[in-house]
Specification:
Helix content is about 35%, strand content about 15%. The chain is an alpha+beta fold and about 550 residues long. The two termini are about 35 Å apart.
Length: about 550
């Protein structure tokens, strides 16, 4: 173990609260420091991202676009392609993998036919350590401070870990020579990961150290009860004033136009960008701007406060959990809610055909409409430093896991063995068996380690697929990225959680009327004083170096 990264130092960093949940970039380590040297991009030559080349698979029913509209499939492909000609391994190699999980612990490998089938297809024996979401930060702190690293480490779930970028640079393989530019052709499914996902991951000291696990471009989405909103006069793209009128008109004795929860904070990030504010961080010519300090943000706050005063928001918004809010949305009490775009299919299933699920386009403010772009990734995967032959084996495994939708490899990874883990319905859709619910990609989360770009495919919901694809064609061209993705800031790595909470608490106070809008400037001054001003400087310098 390096003397610069002792177990005591790293565990102390976690105890102090240096890790933050749900921040937009995973690679936010220190730009300077004793451990691993500088991780910033300033003064370095940025390695080119992998040369993008779309994977070969069945033609979609709904075409994707270069801007980021997903390929849509109205039904499961009948004829699957074989994406990988040779197994990555020889059958003799063992690979140790660690990943976050949101499922239950997997059935042991000796009794798990899904696990055994994947070992056979990959030509390796996988030893898998799955870490529950609630334990991930603590486990990673112990792992990073120790000497015994797994071969493959999937860092996901929206966490920023103390000294994360230093750890990656010091202890993990530099993948630049394998993946930068045309070198990625040796791993065609990794080359098929869209460039926006690599940009969301970012470089460390100008180099490529990981492989991103892609996610679609849309971020927070306002889901609607289509029938109730149409009855109240809703039209896509209507003005902000008209939307407020509709939200109030949809509200009755037992129904509320707008749902919100303790973790969505009245959906303020959505309303802020719809009002023309930056997608959190806007950086131009080395100068950074944070959305909470803009006039557009204050206009959004005023707008939400008026919505709250009108009674349009679900009244328990400051105490109900997001899980409970979903129940209120499903049963028709809350007629809309802000949720992650990835929750589209689970929300449609939760409604159980009680009404039609719809997705809102931004309302217009001053004739302008814009939408929040996601980071483009769930997380990223790094490899322990090893000889070149070993690194290439591990990259071949990741490449297999990223095989495209409509391939035999994708089907095995996502659904298991036909007749054992899934059966097909009348429309050829794979439907999990009882065993398939237990032996699954949810409980053996290799899809959190590497995966294909996600298609629009909602089994049994072809109409939803068409509706979402049409919605994406409208909103993707409006998308605004968060300019700090992939950049380094020592201050934000240490203070990000505190800074986020200052804004969250301030928003709640203003929207609920506990603070006046005129007091927001004081909230923002507190944000600047407790690290925000320094983070603005550091991100500005990093952005200038990377661009």
């Amino acid at each position: 173990m390096s003397a610069n990264m002792s177990r005591r130092t790293l565990l102390r960093s976690v105890a102090v609260g240096g890790a933050a949940l749900a921040v937009p970039s995973l690679l936010t380590g220190c730009s300077t420091g004793t451990t691993g040297g500088s991780v910033g991009n300033k003064g370095t030559k940025a390695a080119p991202w992998p040369t993008y080349a779309a994977a070969q698979g069945p033609a979609p029913d709904l075409a994707p676009t270069a801007e980021g509209v997903q390929a849509g499939f109205l039904k499961y492909p009948e004829k699957l392609v074989e994406a990988v000609a040779e197994k990555p391994g020889t059958g003799k190699e063992k690979i140790r993998i660690l990943s976050i999980t949101y499922g239950t612990p997997p059935v042991p490998a000796s009794r798990n036919r899904y696990w055994a089938a994947l070992n056979e297809a990959l030509g390796v024996e996988i030893e898998f350590t799955v870490v529950p979401d609630a334990d991930f930060r603590t486990k990673m702190a112990t792992l990073m401070a120790g000497d015994d690293l797994p071969d493959v480490i999937a860092i996901g779930g929206g966490y920023t870990l103390p000294r994360e970028a230093q750890f990656v640079k010091q202890r993990c393989a530099d993948l630049t020579g394998y993946l930068s530019g045309d070198a990625a052709r040796d791993y065609p499914h990794l080359a098929a990961i869209p460039t926006y996902a690599w940009e969301g991951m970012g470089r460390i000291a100008g180099r490529i150290y990981g492989v991103p696990v892609e996610r679609p471009k849309p971020q927070d989405t306002l889901f609607l009860n289509q029938e109730a909103f149409k009855k109240a006069g809703f039209r896509q793209g209507m003005s902000a004033a008209d939307f407020a009128t509709v939200a109030k008109a949809a509200t009755g004795r037992r129904t509320f136009g707008l749902g919100a929860s303790t973790t969505s904070y009245f959906g303020y990030k959505t309303h802020a960008i719809w009002h023309g504010a930056p997608n959190e961080w806007r950086i131009e010519k080395g100068k950074a701007e944070y959305f909470a300090g803009t006039e557009q943000f204050k206009a959004a706050l005023e707008y939400m406060a008026k919505l709250r005063a009108s009674g349009a928001y679900y009244p328990e918004a400051t105490s109900v959990s997001q899980v409970d809010l979903k129940t209120q949305f499903y049963n028709g009490t809350a007629l809309s809610m802000t949720d992650g775009f990835g929750a589209t299919i689970s929300n449609a299933q939760g409604i159980k055909d009680a009404y039609t699920l719809d997705l809102a386009q931004p309302y217009a403010v001053g004739g302008t409409r814009q939408f929040q772009q996601s980071r483009g990734m769930f997380g990223y995967t790094v490899l322990k430093k090893a000889p070149a032959a070993r690194v290439k084996l591990l990259l071949r495994v990741l490449d297999w896991l990223a095989s495209p939708f409509g391939s035999k490899e994708y089907e095995l990874l996502h659904y298991g063995i036909e007749g054992t883990h899934f059966e097909r319905d009348k429309d050829n859709n794979p439907i999990a068996t009882e065993r398939g619910l237990v032996e699954s990609a949810n409980n053996l989360p290799l899809t959190k380690v590497a995966d294909a770009p996600q298609p629009l495919y909602y089994p049994g919901y072809a109409d939803l697929t068409e509706r979402v694809h049409a919605w994406q064609r409208e909103v993707v061209p409006m998308m605004v990225p968060n300019d700090r993705w992939g950049l380094q800031s020592d201050t934000f790595s240490r203070q990000g959680a505190t800074l986020d909470q200052i804004v969250n608490d301030g928003v709640t106070a203003v929207v609920t009327g506990r603070k006046k809008l005129s007091e927001w400037d004081g909230v923002y001054k507190k944000w600047l004083a407790q690290g925000g001003r320094k983070a603005l400087e550091e991100f500005g310098a990093e952005h200038a170096a990377a661009h």
